[in-house]
Structures are given as C-alpha cells and as structure tokens.
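FAQ: What does the model actually see?

It sees only this:
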Amino acid sequence: MTQNNSLSAPCFLVGAERSGTTMLRLMLNGHPQQAWCNEFEFIVDHLKAPGCWPDLQGYYKILDTDRIFQSYNFQVNHQLSYPELVNDFMRQKQVRDRKGQVGATVHRHFDRLLWIWPEARFIHLVRDPRDVAPSCIGMGWAGNVWTGVERWREAEDLWTTLKSKLTSDRYLEVRYELLLQDPEAVLTQICQFLGLSYSAQMLRYPDYTTYDAPDARHAQKWKQTMKKKDVQLVEAKVAHLLVQRGYELSGHEMLSLSSPQKKLLQVQDRLARIQARIRSMGLPLFVADYIIRRLGVEPWQRAMRLRLNALEQAALK
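And it is asked to produce this:
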C-alpha cells in the first residue's frame, strides 16, 4: 500500500443530512484503497474566521463529550496546532484502515474546510428535498416539512457559495436518485474523480452493516407518499433551488404564506421537536437536561452530555 504522506488536498463528501451521505460514505469506505470518516462536523463547527483557530484547551473539552469524535477513539496530540490536529485525525483513520487515501463527510459549515485545506476537493451529493424534509421529521429534527426542508436549503445555499470558489477539477456533483438507479456507473465516475479504479467491494456494505443495497424504488418516494399540502410547503420555500438542482416542480399551485402562517408552522415545529425529545429521552431525563443546561454548571453539563451520548449510541445499535 502506498501511504499518502500529504493531506494537503483531501476530499470531502458534502450535502444535507438525510440526503444519502451515509450510504455513499459506506460505499467509499468499502473501496480497498479509500478510507472515509463519518460526520466530521467537529472540525468546522468551532471555527469563526480564517486563521482564528479555537482555543485548544477548550477544544479538548469539547471533544471529550462529542459522541462522534469519541466513537473514533482518536488520540489527541497536545503538541499540535489546530490545523495539524484535525489533519492528524484524518491521518489516524487512514493508517488504522491501511488505505492509501482518506476523506470525510461534512454536512454543515463545509465552506470552512478551505480555511484548513485550501486545496481540498469535494463530492457534493444532492437529494430531492421533498424526500429530505419528511426524513428530517422522522428523525425528530423538525415538526413539519416547512422547517424540515431548512437543513437542505442551508446546505444547498452553502454549496452554491463554495462551488463558486472552486475550479471544475476540484468538485464532483452527484445526484442521489442516479446513485440508486445505477450505482456502479455513478461510483465509477466518483472513483475516476478520486484517481481510483472502480471496485465491486464498494457495493458489499450490506454484508456488514444494517444498510440495504441501493434500490431505485426509493428514489423520489414523495410522489407516492407525500400530501399535496406538504409538497406545496416545500416548494414554496425552495422552488428556485429545486429547479437549479435539476428537479421538476410538482405542478401544484404555488403557495404564498403569510407571516402568521409561518409563525404557526414554527410554533408547531417547536412543540413537535419537544415531544420527539421526550419520547426518545423520557420525561424525567428531558426535564433534568433542561434544568442543567439553564444552570450552566459545567461538571453537571458534562455528565448529562455523556449520558445522552450513551442513549443516542444505544439507539443506533
């Protein structure tokens, strides 16, 4: 195996959550020469401006209770600067998996990756937001499709901005629906972008994960399952981006929401998200978490964060 001694131009998979990034990450990580990290938001969430790196002592404490970071069991080298440290996290994944290349998935603030890796490359994955929004509701992240599509809108607006800063050889745009319909062809295109040859091992992830193989029947399920009013709500917010991304509008009458209607949707969203948290945490733990966050006592907050991490991790098994 040839080790990549320089991570000056790593590749990142970017796009909205619930857009198929986990499935594509499993495919990429299944390549015999490609390691891929999942959900690397902890390297960008705490950046404020180019060259203004987080206080490392504070950052170490954040990592100590970050569920995703802890799941990797990375070593934290206290002798490194912030850019060197996060670069080292990726290198640890590469060495651990004994792969020649390494990449990572980032869902938000991915424009900040250029502050650390100015020559970084990107794979942008997009999915029809009329499927993304209901999926966000199912995760308990939103109470209706009007707010559920917001993560998609933010990610796509950010991609528009980031793409304008990149030369065409530094990014590849992939549509989730095409990945489901012809995974081998799309993965071959991705491998060419990464400088690799396609490997059939990329499609063997169902053998060792809980994720199913790509199925074209899962593309644009909204056409069979989504209520007309919900389709209209999504399109009322992101119609321009839908068209820009190559998706057709439904043809339904376009809604124009008043300020009171939007406010009502926001209130309903808030109540639904609280109910979802109570269902997942239980009322006693929900109340305890609320009180501890309001008190702001760091040892109590840390203990609660670790307890919630364990609860979330157990739910994923």
